[in-house]
Amino acid sequence: MRVSTRQVQKQNTRKKIMETAYSVISNKGFSVPSSVIAEEAGISHGSIFAHFPTMNDLLNNLLSDFGDKMGARLHMLAKKSDSVDNLLKEHLKVLEEYEAFYSRLISEKNRLPDEAKTTFAVIQSTLALHFSNVIEREISKGTVRKLPTHMLFNTWLGLVHYYLMNKDFFSDGNESVIKNYGPELLSFYLKMIKNERGVYE
Amino acid sequence: MKTCIACGMPMEDISDFAGNDPGKDYCVHCARPDGEMQSFEEKRENLASFIVRTQGFNENAARKIAEDMMRKLPAWKDYFC
Ligand SMILES: [Zn+2]
Description:
The complex is a heterodimer. Helices cover 77% and strands 0% of the residues of chain A. By secondary structure, chain A is mostly helical. Chain A is elongated, with a radius of gyration of 20 Å. By secondary structure, chain B is mostly helical. Chain B has one domain (2-73). Chain B has 2 helices and 2 strands, in the order ββαα. In chain B, a hairpin with a 6-residue loop joins strand 1 and strand 2 (10-11). The longest helix of chain B has 16 residues, at 40-55. The chains are: A mainly alpha, B mainly alpha. At the A-B interface, helix 4, helix 7 and helix 8 of A face helix 1 and helix 2 of B. The site of zinc ion has 8 residues of chain B, from loops.
């Protein structure tokens, strides 16, 4: 099927708006007005509305796209992880890659349209799938303490999210919190959950 | 690469497919013991109880998330009109 030049142009503009919105929101948060996104993308304000009638339409598209991308990355990395150490190392890598936008999402999600909650929940459920597979295998081998899966999972996320949500206290300017603190968080968490004596509890 | 039409999981290895059959469009986690794909209600309940077990969410919230996850998948599109 032949795609007309006009259609290509239209798709390019749409892509440009999405990419610009992603980076502007990463820097300034979700409350940024669409006029700022238009200006940053070098297009007219009206052109945004031609593609996304409301700001919520733009946000929903952006969030769903983000969820798909991050979910796919987690799937790919997690499939190769055979131990909890490796899985969480990979999780930190993915978080570092999407750190700015992800931090905005977890800090502001309760003020955002429902799609934001959905995106967040789907990302975490993808992670929970791989986490539970790996951790339950380690528990049955006796290498991780016999604790409830959801508490092991929530403790890890609680720790990482605390640092991300308070990045202004932990890092200077735009330095990555994950890069600076990831190794410390990981080694501390592993010390807490590992069954050092290697015995069944 | 194929992704499961019922849960979205990427299916890379033979063992990811229902019944180790790469001709199938759904994964090993979405198959019933007899090899057929689970029903909408079965999948929703399985996903929801999985979410409760692994993330500790409240049951209603978990069921809502399960539906949101299913909403985007080709196997269930007729259930969300
Ligand atoms: Zn599946």
